[in-house]
Amino acid sequence: METLIIYASKYGCTEDCAVYLKNKLTNGATLVDVNKMDKRFDISGYGKIIIGGSVYIGKVAKKLRAFCVDNLNGLNDKEVGIFLCCALGEQADEVLANNFPPELIKNARSVKIFGSEARLEKMGLIDRTLIKAVTKGDFSKFVISHEQMDEFIKEMDREEVYIID
């Protein structure tokens, strides 16, 4: 079954996570950056679709949200996984509810928060200033969880077994 990983990454953390998934999934995957994607991208050839995004001020990228809404009917016929890169995992349910259609979340095979990284060297002045103010210089929460990524991979790779009596 072909797997598509569609993601939106602002400073590269989400892209790095998407590449990690691609390299670890049993059958590999096709990576697509939603910001470089043709609006008419056809998802029909994929059986599994993984959607990943970074969270800034409670929002994922507008193009990623639009992709999910525009393709909701097709996504409901697929095995879907959703991952977020964000530091505030305790707000994950609220972030998911505010950014993704409820039926997409409900039907997802796996939903995980991978954590995040503070890539200050890639940030503009405003983002760098905001993150320093919010964290008070303590970046200890900004860690990617390989454990969460590996659990996500297990959940997405597992084959469903149906027993018919």
Explain this structure.
- The chain is α/β, with parallel strands linked by helices.
- The chain has a single domain, classed as 3-Layer(aba) Sandwich (Rossmann fold).
- It is built from seven helices and five strands, in the order βαββααβααβαα.
- It has helices spanning 13-24, 62-70, 72-75, 92-99, 102-107, 125-135, 146-157, and strands at 3-8, 30-33, 48-54, 79-85, 110-115.
- The relative contact order is 0.17.
List the helices and strands and how they pair.
Blueprint: E1 3-8, H1 13-24, E2 30-33, E3 48-54, H2 62-70, H3 72-75, E4 79-85, H4 92-99, H5 102-107, E5 110-115, H6 125-135, H7 146-157
Parallel strand pairs: 1-2, 1-3, 3-4, 4-5
List keywords for this structure.
165 residues; alpha/beta; Rossmann fold; 5-stranded parallel sheet; 18% strand; globular
